[in-house]
Amino acid sequence: MPPFIVSVAKWTQADLRKKASREKRLQMITIGYSHYCEFGRFALLVGGVPFDDMACIPGQHVLPTLALRFSGDKPVTSDSTAMTQVGTPPESLSKAERSSRATATPVAVTADGDIVADSWGLAAMSGLAPCDSALKEVLDAKIAVDARHVAYFYFLKRDSLPIFHDMGAAATDSWVWGGLWQLGMKHKLSDILSKAFAVNDVAAKDAAVERLKQAFELIDERYMRKLGSNKYLGGG
């Protein structure tokens, strides 16, 4: 991440470390509709951890996230959450992921000033049982990535764009960013995400759907049946 951008973030954004310390509440930055953030929010609610949620639309989250992740002696980047363009060549993936992990959400800071890097960290501090490492790999590298790809593929289709634009508007508490979204940012971001998630590449989407089916079959076979149940939180 360019040092200049990090400096701008620190100069312009609220100090969430100080706010967390002052209010004795965890401060969290999220993208409102993100499934990564929903997991973190779910963990905090289940664990009874008081928190304030700085809900953002994509783009709005970049500077506050950088300011928080780079607020200590060493940057704290996500170990799991990262967004890269569909079809990124393997030789370019590492660099793309490093940049993405610096602005990934969720990220949070406790009243004691500790940075919680991602949703898995929030789950751990909330008292949820540790996740099997092999299952965590399936969830992070397969289901989370491919589910996002497939969701954006459909959300960013012309007929579905109004739904996505309404989701974006509802994802922020900031009237400034909400206004910018309505004035045209929603169209610009839709174009960027359409390219990133290859919404015109049906074959890539179909491959992602097939990988999702295989991942859930693996989870059913290896984990759910051992528990004597094949029910997920949402049913099915």
- Rg value: 18 Å
Give the helix level as a range of percent: 55-70%
* Secondary-structure element order, N to C: HHEHEHHEEHHHHH
Poorly predicted regions are: none
- Class from helix and strand fractions: alpha+beta
Report the sheet-strand fraction.
Answer: 5-15%
Largest sheet features:
4 strands, mixed
Kindly state the mean pLDDT as a whole number?
Answer: 87
How would you describe the shape? globular
For the largest sheet, list the strands in their spatial order. Answer: 2-1-3-4
Distance between the termini: 41 Å
Number of helices: 10
Question: How many strand elements?
Answer: 4
Overall description:
The mean pLDDT is 87. The chain has helices at residues 3-12, 16-23, 35-47, 62-69, 90-101, 119-125, 133-155, 161-170, 175-196, 202-224; strands at 26-31, 51-56, 107-109, 115-116. The protein starts with a helix and ends in a 12-residue tail after the last helix. Helix 1 crosses helix 4 and helix 7 (133-155) runs antiparallel to helix 10 (202-224). Helix content is 58%, strand content 7%. The chain is globular, with a radius of gyration of 18 Å. It is built from 10 helices and 4 strands. It is an alpha+beta fold. A 4-stranded mixed β-sheet has the order 2-1-3-4. Strand 1 (26-31), helix 3 (35-47) and strand 2 (51-56) form a beta-alpha-beta unit.
